[in-house]
Design goal:
The structure is a homodimer of 248-residue chains.
Chain A: E1 11-15, H1 17-27, H2 32-37, H3 39-42, E2 50-54, E3 59-61, E4 69-75, E5 78-83, E6 89-95, E7 100-101, E8 112-115, E9 119-125, H4 126-135, H5 137-163, H6 166-184, E10 190-192, H7 197-204, H8 208-220, E11 224-227, E12 231-234, H9 237-244
The first copy, chain A, binds a DNA duplex (30 and 30 nucleotides) through residues 165-166, 196-198, 206-213, 215-216.
Chain lengths: 248, 248
DNA sequence: CGCGTAGTTGATGAAAATCAAATGTGGTGG
DNA sequence: CCACCACATTTGATTTTCATCAACTACGCG
């Protein structure tokens, strides 16, 4: 059960919020004019905090660190995990642009956050975060909705971890990523898998070997195709959904 | 994998909020004067909705039902679960007095809620709930904190389901219940287990047989004692914590 | 080009599921 | 009050799935 070595935080660049908003508009799929017109309504945090860039495998914060800030992913993929004392690891989730972390409201972070890919992350100091909520009462309700859907995702993951077989877990995982990809890019059946087999295994409660065998099985039965560059094509979404079963 | 039969909703009694507040004060450990003085500050929902009583094994709502209300448990134990099409069941959580459900903010409930014991539940229609949040902006922030700790619990449960062994799962489960019990009744090492072995199994991603063997193992190694009336005594909390490992 | 790591595939083992049966327990009716 | 019944729990035997151990292959990078 390999525990990834935690590297220290090494931001490769930092921008004030105004510059970063431009970065977001340019790199994201959203037209720059829209974000420029009413950034606060689209993202209440767009004007708060700094966007920092990090190399892949960099640790943003560790389980147990003082929770002094909330983060919002601007670009790249972030991995959250928890560890058992003997090194067994559970990946709690993979975050992409728009996802938030550190909202746990506890004194310390309850999981470790690391960059799966090079990433840009907006860091909002807790004091600023609280102040913003004081100014904008509607914000708490928006966040409540966000938290609610995170909770729903967590419950789906419980069903997956507790009751699904290895192949069902993998099919579910690919379908969820497929839906995320389709949301950004409608009709797209291809998904990027920037994370390693070990990451996937630790997310699904399996081993790398079992994940690998799962991919082979799905490939052999023509439900997916493995393309170059860690890209997977969902060939038979129908059959994958049957496998994954539930509404997750 | 036995799926419990869903019985229809059969409230055995209903009280207006004012009467129910009295019931709460009398049956709970909180002095009646305190709840009587400032109920809204202690529980913003104390004056909203109706408290209904239900028999054990009654279904409150089912996965897929229109989510037209939010609930707060007043008394008794409620079980939330999700099902796979083939009947495999995952218990998402056990709720006790003070816990809320139905906050998912989706159009339909995403899990089924059933009474483990006879229970009293305050039902807050969604419209009233939204209106109350409009009136009391601070409420959303309180709920945000509630949701955050639910999310934390869900993440701990992911670690449990994905990476812990059968006995570790059981030890963790007992410790969490033990902490809950101690919170209500400081120093208490005895916990009531109103739920069946099947419920526990479906909560921990195991079978009843494995849960039973786990109890036997913990009993034989003198970490717990099984008393009459589904009561468990945590004899060696130290050793149980070692077994359960993590901070969960 | 070769080294190192990530991923795949194969053989074996262990934990938990499944199958099966015995034992307890609470509730009901005689 | 007791006997009986249905069902929950425990215990035992066997099977299955997935983890572990081991080897090989492929890919990326210096």
């Amino acid at each position: 059960m390999a525990a990834l070595l935690a590297t220290s935080v090494r931001p490769t660049a930092a921008y004030p919020a105004s510059v970063a908003a431009g970065v977001l508009a340019r790199t994201g799929g959203v037209p720059a004019t829209v974000t420029a017109l009413r950034p606060a309504e689209i993202d209440p945090f767009a004007a708060i905090g700094m966007v920092r860039r990090f190399d892949r495998d960099t640790e943003l914060f560790a389980e147990g660190n003082e929770a002094d800030a909330v983060y919002k992913v601007v670009e790249g993929t972030i991995r959250l995990h928890k560890l058992l004392p003997d090194g067994r690891r559970q990946v709690i989730g993979f975050l992409q642009a728009g996802d938030m972390m550190g909202l746990a409201m506890a004194g310390t972070y309850l999981y470790t956050a690391e960059c799966v890919t090079a990433a840009a992350v907006r860091r909002i100091p807790r004091a600023r975060f609280e102040a913003t909520m004081d100014e904008q009462p509607a914000l708490a309700r928006k966040l409540l909705t966000t938290m609610a859907s995170e909770l729903v995702a967590a419950q789906d993951q419980m069903l997956l971890l507790g009751r699904k077989t290895a192949v069902e877990k993998l099919a579910s995982f690919l379908l969820v990523l497929g839906r995320r990809a389709a949301a950004r890019n409608p009709g797209c059946r291809r998904i990027d898998l920037p994370m390693s087999r070990t990451d996937i295994a630790d997310y699904l409660g399996l081993t790398t070997e079992t994940v690998s065998r799962g991919f082979t099985k799905l490939k052999t039965s023509r439900l997916i195709r493995l393309l170059d560059g860690n890209v997977v094509e969902l060939v038979d979404t129908e059959a994958l959904t049957d496998l994954a079963d539930c509404g997750a």
